[in-house]
Specification:
Number of helices: 11
CATH class: Alpha Beta
CATH superfamily: Aldolase class I
Low-confidence stretches: 3-11
Number of strands: 10
Strand content: 5-15%
Helix content: 25-40%
CATH architecture: Alpha-Beta Barrel
Order of helices and strands: HEHHEEEHEHEHEHHEHEHEH
CATH topology: TIM Barrel
Shape: globular
Mean pLDDT: 90
Number of domains: 1
Distance between the termini: 43 Å
Length: 304
């Protein structure tokens, strides 16, 4: 178990003596500031900021952003996530147009769209995802689109709405192993998430599917390998595996730092198990290098 450094406040991120492989340069380049100004001008939320992603400096320097739709307040309280929980914002009908404008202004060839959970909406926000996809298709037809959606738990027909809008990649993260769900992701159901991913393929086999895991929460290696098997049984094409970092003292505790060698092992095994694309490293996140990885995914699919 890791030892935390003493803090005088519970509002700041937990401080550990991070290993060298997790240390990144802070943001501040000219390109980063230009991206930040555009995001502010278009009044967009990004998961890069809301979830305190360690890769924000690198990604925004390249003008790569992951937009977060449906507001900035989540209806759930997952123990790993730094997004605010509470009474959600009103749905903004103009958000899809602003996102389409951002795609053009940033010159994006690939965009990732994610969201907070919106259990308060009849469709969980599925129609809003579809509207964003459609607006981007009209204004930037050459841009490929990846969605990272909630589980749409108990929202009949929601998945079909998003799939019918034809994203290029459908991502839904399992996040952790089944034994930790009650503690880490209490509002979700492991096998429902697996079923959602499998149903994407049943509805449209041409859409690539993707899912991600965090490690370092106390899972065993055997449990991670079982999740890989479950995802392959659900015909998932692409798996991401990254290091969990505890955002604040009130979040789920970090149990260990996983070594780069262990991530290399996971990548090797995932490829053996048949995933078309694997991204496994301490700094891997769902949308990290998503555009480059999508091109590799298409190339891998073409060889099969």
């Amino acid at each position: 178990m890791l030892q935390k450094e003493d803090k005088d406040t519970t509002n700041e991120a937990v401080q550990y003596s991070k290993p060298s492989w997790l240390k990144v340069r802070g943001p501040g380049s000219k390109e980063y500031k230009e991206t930040e100004e555009l995001i502010r001008a278009l009044k967009l939320n990004t998961v890069c900021e809301e979830a305190s992603c360690p890769n924000i400096g690198e990604c925004w320097n390249k003008k790569h952003v992951t937009v977060m739709i449906l507001g900035s307040v989540c209806t759930r309280a997952c123990k790993f996530c730094n997004v605010a929980t509470g009474i959600p914002d009103k749905l903004d009908p103009h958000e899809p147009e602003r996102i389409a404008s951002a795609v053009g202004a940033l010159g994006l060839t690939h965009i990732v769209i994610t969201s907070v959970d919106r259990d308060d909406l009849p469709d969980g926000g599925a129609g809003h995802f579809a509207s964003c996809i459609n607006k981007i298709r009209i204004s930037s037809p050459g841009t490929t689109i990846e969605v990272l959606t909630p589980d749409f738990l108990r929202k009949a027909g929601a998945l079909e709405v998003v799939v019918n809008a034809m994203p290029d990649v459908y991502n839904h993260n399992l996040e952790t192993v089944p034994s930790l769900y009650a503690k880490v992701r209490p509002g979700a159901r492991y096998y429902h998430s697996l079923s959602l991913l499998h149903n994407v393929k049943k509805l449209n086999s041409k859409i690539f599917t993707k899912s991600g895991l965090m490690v370092g929460l106390g899972e065993t290696r055997e449990e991670v390998l079982q999740v890989m098997d479950d995802l392959r049984a659900a015909e998932v094409d692409f798996i991401t595996i990254g290091q969990y970092l505890q955002p604040t003292p009130s979040h789920y505790p970090l149990h260990e730092f996983i070594t780069p060698e262990a991530f290399q092992y996971y990548e090797k095994i995932a490829r053996i198990k048949g995933f078309l694309m694997v991204s496994a490293s301490p700094l891997t996140r769902s949308s990290y290098h998503a555009g480059d990885d999508f091109l590799k995914l298409k190339e891998a699919a073409a060889r099969v």
